[in-house]
Amino acid sequence: MPYKNKEEGNINRKLFYKNNNGLMRERRLKYRKMKRDYIDNYKLSKGCAVCGYNKCASALDFHHDGNKEYNIANARNSMGLKRLIEEMDKCIVLCRNCHAELHENLRRNNR
After folding, report:
1. φ and ψ at 79, to 5 degrees?
2. Quick check: 88 pLDDT over 60?
């Protein structure tokens, strides 16, 4: 419902959140879990691009090949799912071992 002035809307929103703190907390936690599950399923469905490993989502990482706006793991709780998906599409999924080997090779070649 639009308010005639911005101040009145802000006051009413603050009052709503204050009176419904438990409900809002539950919604946030449910949304965060949904995003975490989506990301885990995405990684497992892709598997490691080098060796094919896809048993544990925690053992799979996103590797950016250039245009990196933000770290997906750090932004998972603060970004919306749509922006996370856009960032994930810029990456390849690698298991931790292959990811470490790739970065070691990149470091050695840049010396």
Report:
1. -105, 155
2. yes
The residues near 17 (Cβ < 8 Å, ≥ 6 apart) are: 24
DSSP helix/strand/coil, 58: helix
pLDDT, tens only, 15-26: 888 888 888 889
The pTM (predicted TM-score) of the whole model is 0.77
> Where are the chain's structural domains?
6-109
Q: Are 72 and 39 contacting, i.e. CB atoms less than 8 angstroms apart?
A: yes
51 close to 95: Cβ distance less than 8 angstroms: yes
Structure letter (DSSP) for residue 64: E
pLDDT tens, 52-64? 999 999 999 999 8
Long-range pairs, 49-53, Cβ under 8 A, ≥24: 49/92, 49/93, 49/94, 49/98, 50/94, 50/95, 50/98, 50/102, 51/95, 51/97, 51/98, 53/95, 53/98
- Sign of the Cα torsion 86, 87, 88, 89 reads positive
